[in-house]
Amino acid sequence: MAKIKITQVRSKNGATKRQKANLQCLGIHRLNQTVEVELTPVTKGMVQKVLHLVKVEEI
Known about the structure:
Layout: E1 3-8, H1 17-26, E2 34-38, H2 41-49, E3 54-58
Antiparallel strand pairs: 1-2, 1-3
């Protein structure tokens, strides 16, 4: 399975509870934090919901 690198680039202050929960489930807890995750349908859906807050790169 492919891996992606996700970096939070915008603040989650104005985000909804669901968007904040998605960031937490992805393993992102603070601004400019980067995590590497497997690209599964579940993680792809979570990333789509917070795409305006993060930067995504394929590895």
